[in-house]
Amino acid sequence: MGKVTVVGSGVMGKGIAYAFAISGYEVHVQDISLENLRKAKEDIDALLDSSLEKGYLESNAYESAKKNLVFEPDLKKAAEGAELVVEAVIERMDVKIDVFKQLDEICPPETVLATNTSTMSPTEIGAQTSRPDKVIAMHFFNPVHKMKLIEVIRGLETSDTTVNFVHETAARINKTTVEVNEFPGFVTSRMNCLIGNEAMYLLMEGVASAKDIDKAMKLGLNHPMGPLELADLVGLDTRLRNMEYLHATLGEKYRPCPLLVKYVKAGRLGRKSGRGFYEYN
Is residue 113 within a helix (H) or strand (E), and if so which, with residue range? Predict the structure, then answer.
């Protein structure tokens, strides 16, 4: 299979790189931080080792993935010749646009440029490039190695050829797709942010404990993970940025809960900081 570049080696970037690597793609992971790249390699190696030990991966897929992963701080080296680039940087439009402008200059004209945004506009991002027909959103879900879905969001100028390519590529990495016409928050983030925000209000108002709110959603509504657990996993700073964007674009019902704002100000960002709605060792 071809070369895929993942820009950003955070939680989502690592998961996306793993999914492509175990499916036979040559995967170049790019990050401007050498420390982030070192940590990404360490975490992906640990996941590969665990998947092999538990029988989720066969030895040939394991060995292939190890060989196919390249960790590179230079964007030009990482993205040259890629058939697909997936951007997984911070959820800020200015940062994403800057990355796409660089990719547009580096990559050949046939390269598809995808953003892993959970809320933002592929139309706006694509308009900053010379190839808006090749720009699309591929919204993966966390943890990527467990979650089957990719939301495929076409921008105003995204071509049918690009959309079909992304559907076919998702199938090759054993993912299921849903196609969404662009609107802020798409399908899943609009619903998920509302549920999570309401759970935070329930906690702030003393209606129930975090543990019991999550337990009620899991056992009463069959959610695999409670909304507060999920927010901790995603990162409360990331969730706050999502809520602020949706509040600005969709209105008052997406105003972030004051408790979320307070936790982010206090540095309680969830799993990655060791404390959010729960504490983590």
Answer: strand 112-115
